[in-house]
Design brief:
Blueprint: H1 7-13, E1 20-23, E2 27-31, E3 41-45, H2 57-78, E4 82-86, E5 102-107, H3 124-135
Antiparallel strand pairs: 1-2, 2-3, 3-5, 4-5
The structure holds adenosine monophosphate and zinc ion.
Zinc ion (ZN) binds near residues 3, 6, 8, 9 and 99.
């Protein structure tokens, strides 16, 4: 399941060094080399899946369980004030490494606007239209 030229597959195999903070049979958790905040880390499955669409459902559940555990430990050890879990799928969504991963981003008071989007202002009709497309 290793994909040639995948930077995260190379990190998993040890071909590229990383700052590992946790690992088990399924996942490796490493520090992001270009962190959005102090302690920014990535949960990476050992097996190559491009994104959450491809990740098997049981592994998605395991990844979220691990995210919760890591978040709890990191909050205690780093003394951060909050936490973002971020997961990008597809280039348009900001994904740059096409091997599934979850960002663990500790947040600190006054650390600035790390993740920000402009809130839309749809009317009720638009919301009902999109609700129908998705739900029916
Ligand atoms: P994404 O934009 O969601 O695909 O996130 C990819 C992340 O991987 C970015 O935050 C990068 O800083 C990080 N990254 C890329 N190469 C490495 C590396 N060799 N070691 C650790 N993090 C990396
Ligand atoms: Zn890979």
């Amino acid at each position: 399941m290793k994909q040639d030229n995948c930077i995260f597959c190379k990190i998993i195999s040890g071909e590229i060094p990383s700052f590992t903070i946790f690992e088990d049979e399924q996942f490796k958790v490493i520090l992001d080399v270009a962190p959005a905040a102090k302690g920014h880390a990535l949960i990476i499955p050992r097996r190559h899946y491009a994104n959450l669409y491809e990740l098997p459902e049981d592994m998605a559940a395991d990844a979220m369980r691990l995210a919760r555990r890591m978040m709890t430990t990191m909050t205690q050890k780093l003394g951060c004030d909050g936490f973002n879990i971020v997961q990008n799928n597809g280039e348009v969504a900001g994904q740059t490494v096409f091997h599934f991963h979850m960002h663990l981003i500790p947040r600190y008071h006054n650390d600035g606007e790390i993740l920000k989007y402009i809130a839309g202002e749809p009317d009720r009709e638009e919301l009902e239209q999109i609700r129908r497309i998705i739900a029916e």
